Amino acid sequence: MLELHDVSVRYGGIHALGDVSLKVTKGEIVCLIGANGAGKSSILNVVSGLVPARAGQVTFEGESLLRKSATAIVRKGIIQVPEGRLVFPDLTVLENLEMGAYTQKVERFLPTLDSVFQLFPRLAERRGQLAGLMSGGEQQMLAVGRALMAHPKLLLLDEPSMGLAPLIIAEIFRIIGRLRDDLGCTILLVEQNARAALALADRGYVLVNGHVAKSGPAVDLMKDSAIQEAFLGKRRAHPGPNAVTAVNSGKVRAE
Fold this sequence. Notes:
Layout: E1 2-11, E2 14-24, E3 29-33, H1 40-48, E4 55-60, E5 63-64, H2 70-75, E6 78-81, H3 93-100, H4 109-119, H5 121-125, H6 136-148, E7 154-158, H7 166-181, E8 186-190, H8 194-200, E9 203-208, E10 211-217, H9 218-223, H10 225-231, H11 241-248
Parallel strand pairs: 3-8, 3-9, 6-7, 7-8
Antiparallel strand pairs: 1-2, 1-4, 4-5, 9-10
C-alpha cells in the first residue's frame, strides 16, 4: 500500500532522514520507534506532504506522492492524527468531527458519525462540549475520531499516548487495535512508548539518527536484546547513549 524508498529529508543544514526505506501493507499496523529526534515524525510528514523529500520515492497504491499537495494526499485517503492532538479548542466535539468529514459526501456523514460515536461513546456524551474543555485523553479520542470521519485508507498516528495517564494510554491502544481488527484500518504508528507500540503492531522499524537500524516482525523486535536495552527498559524514559550506540553500530543489524 505505502512504500518509501531511499527517502532523505533536510531541515536547512540538518539531515533529518537518510535513505529511509519502509513499507506498509494493507490491514496491518506498522510502528516506528526510536529516541526523540530520530526522524519518526519526519516520515509521517513526508507521507502527508507537509515536508518535501530531498531524494527518494514515496508511493501509495502504486502512485507517487512526491510533488502532491497535502490536500491532494488527504483526498487519496491518507489522514494524519498529529502529535499533540491539535483539536479545534473553540469548536464543539460535533463541530470538530464535522471538520474531519469535509472531503466526504454529505450522505456519508451521519452513518460515519454513528460509527465514531459507537467506537468512542464518550464523544457522543460530550458532542456539544467545547473541545478545549476536554481532558487530554478525550481530546486524543476526538482527534482519532475526526480522522476516521474522512474514511482513511491509511491512518498516520503521531505519538497518540503522549502526556496521557497509564489507564488512558491502555484505552487508546485498545481502540487502535480495534481499528485494525474490527474495521480493517491500515495504520502507521509513531510512538515513544516502544513497548506498547511493539505489543500492538504487526511489524516495526527502529530509527536511529534518521536511519533505519532494524526492521522486522514486532514480536522479534521485542525479543532483541539491544532493542530491549535501548528502548524497552522498565525505568528508563529515554535510551541512554550507550544503548543508542549499540543499536546504531550494528549490534542491532539493519535489514
